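[Help] Beginner question about ligand-bound structures

Sorry if this is basic. My supervisor gave me a protein sequence and a SMILES string for pyridoxal-5'-phosphate and asked me to "get the holo structure". I don't really know what that means in practice or what format the answer should be in. Inputs are pasted below exactly as I got them.
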Amino acid sequence: MNSQQYIALDESYVAHTYNPIEVVIERGEGAWVYDVEGKRYFDCLSAYSAVNQGHCHPRILEAAVSQMHRVTLTSRAFFNDQMGLFLKQLCELTGYEMALPMNTGAEAVETAIKAARMWGYRMKGVAHDQAEIIVCEGNFAGRTTTLISFSSEEQYKEDFGPLTPGFKTIPYGDHEALAEAITPNTVAFLVEPIQGEGGVIVPPAGYLKHVAEICAANNVLFIADEIQTGLGRTGALLCCDHEGVRPDMVTLGKALSGGVYPVSAVLADRRVLGLFRPGDHGSTFGGNPLASAIARAALDVLVDEGLVDRSREIGAYFMGRLKRIESDHIEEVRGKGLLIGVEMSSLARPYCDSLRDAGILCKDTHGTIVRFAPPLVISKEEIDWAMERIEPILSNGHQ
Ligand SMILES: *Cc1c(COP(=O)(O)O)cnc(C)c1O
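Answer (accepted):
No worries, everyone starts somewhere. Holo just means with the ligand present. The predicted complex, written as structure tokens, is below.
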């Protein structure tokens, strides 16, 4: 079968919740993927930053295969010999006391919301069903009914109500708005350190520091959603590290498994996560031994291959080169590490299609933004290769 036939299959049988770039990927290795015709592409999306460690990393695959031959799923009705080791490693790496494993990013954010509400009722003394969580305009947290309830994208929610109450929206990057929005019922502020899906929006310097101070002063939990920005993507282990702040809770997902399996987690100290009692929360697959073994290897790769430093160094080089493109069609180049957004003066999709033709895979976000977020394993030479192709495409306009 050729690409057009595969695309036709999707058209017929798959609910149209996406509008994919027309490329049918058959295999991947490191920063590269190959389509069914054998054409090679430089992956500049990394599955929305899930494949930070590169496609099909041999060490992660090895861990997956060997664990598959032992046991894959036990459920949390029993203990297994992988989950504790995984979460110890994750807590030691990030400096938190406890973790709660889930599967998808959306589930991690849902879990953080439940934890914050529970903390509010049991510890802060908020009256039942009165807890408020403050969120930001332009947020993205996933697609469950509760998470879309506080989205500012009309399409995400207009036909999917009734919506979950208990959220208040303020502008992103404005710490004074946070201070003003807090009430005695506020239990948490949920924020992305850089808004990824929102268009690679980088808040003003010092924002996260102010946020941490305001939350601490008001006994409000500071929850950082690092599902996209975490695990080296922005040139620090956590994006919050750039400002030296330590949120009360952190959500991780995506690259936690190197893209091999859905693995997510919520991190916090005992004073929050220690409040959960048996029966309060759960997941059949959360913390399963296969997921845990894969995540252990994915974290090992991140550390042993120095991918956080690499992201910072190569990201600075890539961003520098993108900023030097002379084009009337580029409004702004922004980001941190290897999470880079190029805002165009018109729709980004035609640029992404041209880039695809030139062997570079990107996906437009928020209309006019081309996101460049390659796997962290890329080299300077690969960036040079990509820039030879990116530069002429972003210099020539599309209507
Ligand atoms: C992708 C993403 C999520 C949701 O993750 P899923 O695995 O798609 O459910 C949540 N928050 C942020 C910031 C994300 O980028």
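A couple of things worth pointing out: The chain has 14 helices and 15 strands. Residues 105-124 form the longest helix (20 residues). Feel free to follow up in the thread.
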